[in-house]
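Re: [ENG-882] Designed sequences occasionally contain unexpected residues at chain ends

Forwarding the minimal case from QA. Structure tokens:
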């Protein structure tokens, strides 16, 4: 997985996490988001989180 693909996957996973409606779904996307953070620097992960927050606040449910 390329770095760009990993960041996009993390952003989409975070968007799903923010809109999760039950604990089972929340836990799945939480664990997935941890998986996609592996290998990213703290700055890269924070940047993805900020992008996901902005998209979520605009009503977007996916990136790209």
């Amino acid at each position: 997985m390329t770095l760009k693909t990993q960041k996009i996957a993390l952003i989409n996973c975070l968007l799903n996490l923010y809109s999760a409606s039950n604990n089972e779904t929340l836990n799945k996307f939480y664990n997935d988001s941890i998986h996609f953070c592996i290998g990213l620097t703290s700055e890269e992960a924070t940047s993805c989180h900020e992008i996901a927050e902005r998209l979520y606040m605009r009503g977007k449910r996916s990136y790209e």
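QA comment: On inspection the terminal residues look reasonable. The mean pLDDT is 95. Proposing we downgrade this to a documentation issue.
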